[in-house]
Amino acid sequence: MSSPRIAVIGAGLAGLACARALAARGAAIRLFDKGRAAGGRLATRRAEAAGQALQFDHGAQYLTARTEGFAALLAACGASPWGEPGRFVGTPGMSALPRAMARGLDLAAARHVTAIEGRPGAWVVRHLDAALLRPGRPRPATEPEAEGPFQAIAIALPPVQAAPLIAPHAPEWPARLAAVRMAPCWTVMAAFATRLPLPDSLRPAPGGAIGWAARDSSKPGRPAGAECWVVQAGPDWSRAHLEDPAEAVAPALLAALGALAGADLPAPAHAAAHRWRHSLVEAPLGEACLADPALGLGLGGDWCLAGRAEAAFESGTALAAALLP
Ligand SMILES: Cc1cc2nc3c(=O)[nH]c(=O)nc-3n(C[C@H](O)[C@H](O)[C@H](O)COP(=O)(O)OP(=O)(O)OC[C@H]3O[C@@H](n4cnc5c(N)ncnc54)[C@H](O)[C@@H]3O)c2cc1C
Fold first, then answer.
1. Domains, the chain, ordered by start
2. Binning pLDDT at 50, 70 and 90, where does residue 45 land?
3. What is the dihedral of CA 216, 193, 225, 41, to 10 degrees?
4. From 324's CA, which of 142, 268, 289, 309 has a CA 20 to 30 Å away?
């Protein structure tokens, strides 16, 4: 019997875990992601200021493993300890973890999936060059490409992005997705010429602007000589300032960091802000995945279980087992 051909949409940790588990079960996998590479919220941004290489993990800060399976994956992908015992980071950046997981998988990067068509046993994925769908660009006249047939499709996207793809085929699922709540997170990446008078990481008491801040350059394997900081706003501040321009967010959060340091910060050599509209899960689905093996469709992601990378791994692994027992 030939291998089942299965599409996985979303190459974040959940989609990668799902794709690897399906491939291990003998499936032929085609993976789609709108990003330029695999990783999703396990992400690293690079920059330069005054000839100094800079680097920031602007999504997940560190990973923890409660299960043997995830601990083994972190070890296999070269994760290194950082900070408090039990915390691990990708080296030389967080994005090294998903890159290692994606090795050997057939990934169509920079492809935005716009629709799922077809029928059980013969699903078709419609996808378009992600650059054509950037915010602010007019709706493209280009017809999305069609790829298939696939015996099954695993969708590993945040609920808001998964709902329109799944609605025509599993009308009862969008209501389940609507019950899931994810917080936004404004994140500032800043570099300084001198060392700030702060510990390597801080999690201030809730209520202020900042939820977490870390000297990203204290992580192993980062560019030598840099003083790089990642400053994340708390969910309340991020919601209240969601539509603020990035140019206003960076100085506001750096002023809040200065207040925590008890001193005016030096002018940053580099400062940029990134808005995550869906960052940490506040109200999860409460089960490892949603899957209908007869239909050949399933949904997974951290949002099924909890706002932790390990939850994404568990959900993706469970989704693979549900679709291809
Ligand atoms: C600011 C921030 C801080 C965090 N801190 C931590 C932490 O310290 N520790 C921790 O354990 N976790 C942390 N997390 C959570 C962790 O990053 C997530 O739990 C995990 O990465 C989620 O993986 P996922 O695969 O479920 O989703 P994602 O990583 O969001 O993957 C979804 C993928 O789908 C793609 N996609 C979306 N729509 C489409 C489409 N239409 N077509 C094609 N592709 C599409 C996206 O490009 C993305 O790659 C943090 C997250 C954020 C944002």
1. 5-42+95-180+284-323 (3.50.50.60), 182-281 (3.90.660.10)
2. very high
3. 20
4. 309
